[in-house]
Amino acid sequence: MARKIIQRDQIVKLIVGAGQASPSPPEFNARTAHMNPGVPIPARVTVRPDRSFHFELRTPTTSYLLLNAAGVKERKGKVRGAMNPGKERVGEVSLKHVHEIAKIKHTEMRLSGLSMEGLCKSIIAQAQSIGINIVP
After folding, report:
1. CA 125 to chain centre
2. Could you tell me how far CA 94 lies from the centroid of its own chain?
3. Minimal CA–CA distance to 65: which of 29, 34, 83, 91?
4. pLDDT tens digits, residue range 6-38?
5. Contact predicate 18/36, CB 8 Å
6. Cβ neighbourhood burial of 86 (10 Å; 0-12, 13-18, 19+)
7. Which residues neighbour 16 within 8 Å (Cβ) at sequence distance 6 or greater?
8. Is the pLDDT of residue 73 over 70?
9. Burial tier of 110 (Cβ tally within 10 Å: 0-12, 13-18, 19+)
């Protein structure tokens, strides 16, 4: 006798450039129209058993915001961090930039419970891991 499988929601996590979803759900491109095209936006799509879906947009990735604030140039067609983060530096950001990035990330629902100090420490740690120097 065959078992009946309980259908449940499937979750798909994507990182898509703002306004560049194709084949596009029109809602994604409409909800990211105010952002610069190509900014990587993490999206979490929940697909229900009846094939309807719901998606949640998050803020751009911390590494993208840090690399843009540091003014890192493209290498091999992409903006990348240091190859040897402990020995090589690709740029510098000030604590003011770190605080601004923390304010952007704090608007996200899942991070709103964290303190600004904790977010800033997390961003500083990520900056060091991709080879960006923090200056006061």
Report:
1. 16
2. 20
3. 91
4. 788 889 898 888 888 777 567 788 888 888 888
5. yes
6. exposed
7. 28, 40, 41, 43
8. yes
9. exposed
Residue with tokens 């105010």: 34
Token readout for 59 is 């803020």
Dig out the tokens for 106 from the structure: 């704090």
Bin 99: left if φ > 0, else alpha if -120 < ψ < 50, else beta: alpha
| Helix H or strand E encompassing 123 | helix 116-129
DSSP β-ladder status, 53-57 and 74-75:
unpaired
Give the gyration radius of the chain's Cα atoms: 18
Give the tokens for residue 47. 């697909």
pLDDT (0 to 100) of residue 32: 84
Average pLDDT over residues 121-129: 94
Nearest to 66 by CA among 92, 37, 38, 40: 92
